[in-house]
Amino acid sequence: MKFLGYRRANGTVGTRNHMLVFPTVICAAATAEMISRAVAGTVVVTHPHGCGHMGVETEHVVRSMSGFCANPNVAGVLLVGLGCELITPRTIAERLDGYRQRYEIVNIQEEGGTTATVEKGRLLVEKLLKEAAKVNREPVDISELIVGTNCGGSDTFSGLTANPALGNACDRLVAEGGTAILSETPEMIGAEQVLAGRAASESVKKRIYEITSATEAMAFKAGVDIRGSEPSPGNIEGGLTTLEEKSLGAVLKGGTTTIKEVVDFAVKPAEKGLVIMDGPAHDAVCNTGMIAGGAQVIVFTTGRGTPMGAPIAPVIKVATNSRIYQHMRDNMDINAGNILEGTETIESIGERIFQEIVEVASGKATRAEMLGHHEFAIHSLGLSV
Amino acid sequence: MVLEALVLHPKDNVATAVRLLEKGKRISFKDRGNDTDVLLLQIIPFGHKFALTDIEPGEKIIKYGEVIGQATKSIEKGEHVHVHNVEGLRGRGDRQ
User: Fold this and answer.
1) Which of A55, A110, A289, A379 has the greatest number of beta carbons closer than 10 A?
2) Distance from B18 to chain A by nearest Cα, in Å?
3) The domain B5-95: what is its CATH number?
4) Cβ contact (<8 Å) for A223 and B93?
5) Model pTM?
6) What is the DSSP string of B46-80?
7) Do A71 and A184 sit in the same domain of this protein?
8) Helix (H, G, I), strand (E, B), or coil: what is residue B26?
9) pLDDT per residue as tens digits for the range B35-91
């Protein structure tokens, strides 16, 4: 099966042809926004990171930033720095060289202030845009796709409708040779036995228990009942009673195939098929990690309703119930609530989600894209000074 | 037929309301292949759970055929099952 994608010089395939303006430190964030505003057809990301990190947190942030900038949906990136920060454009550029990603660099202290940086940045971005315009969509095999899965603003129907339907779509993608990522480690706690039973090897099984134990240990260290954070107050209002209940519904979105690999946050899977990425359940962080790990499309299920999108990857929103689908109609792409009314089945919605993935990968805009949603977040590991 | 509630696994001792269900309503379901029913003792909000059997304090709550927590007090058949009478067993940093 084929979709229409952008073949990159490094062999990867994008579903979008974005020109990204990326500040490597918060001190350059507003300047990056000004550059993006000055040139039509660019996207900008802002974040509070880039300085004050230590140890493994530095590596975590560098890996997240560079993986994100190297995503095949990005045709080229302008890295905007200040000059005295920990994570400079040069730090990220060294990683991008490894990915063979196209980039340019501009630094505020070097250029001599905001105005000069915006002017230089504008010229560099225009040059990159001209190069990007030469790339056209071409038919490529669907096995090139990495689809990230996410569920946010969950209710009890997430586990009954949208998540098993998304799981069905993931099974179809995997059968076609593609890759699906299941993340949100906190929402595997209480469902480890289900996942471990499908592990490709003893080492994958061991990793599944390791990542959930490490996440549960955070609640132990904090000395609190995880309930209230997981499930959240909105989840509880929606009928989810415990974390175990939420997890058992959440893991259904990965489907039923063998779990080939467990990767760290923002790491690109080496295997094809269903892969677990260790990471938080925070919606924007989860999306960012999967995109940094190479996901070109995200499918996101929601019962309480969320407008969440991503700056460089299309996010397909699947409603778990018809009420939220109608109530937040402008944010929703697919309604899995029909399963409750008996007019659709998990399989028929699974097929619809799969078809939508192919169409969106080929250029169809999602609701989140039309509305301009571009949420981005990297979590702190608590090692900032 | 309009679906009122879902039982996901034969082992489950709770069902999920697919619409707001009124107190005093009788809900039919299959218990190990046999038709049976439960009289709702309370209003069950959209998406919330009710007990299919009497549940003792400390007894495990089963949904998807898996343990989702345990009862903190006795729960009658037909009663609303939620955070007021069920606790999670995982992520209990308050118990460490």
Assistant:
1) A289
2) 7
3) 2.30.130.110
4) yes
5) 0.94
6) TT-EEESS-B-TTPEEEETTEEEEEESS-B-TT-E
7) no
8) strand
9) 889 999 999 999 999 999 999 999 999 999 999 999 999 999 999 999 999 999 999
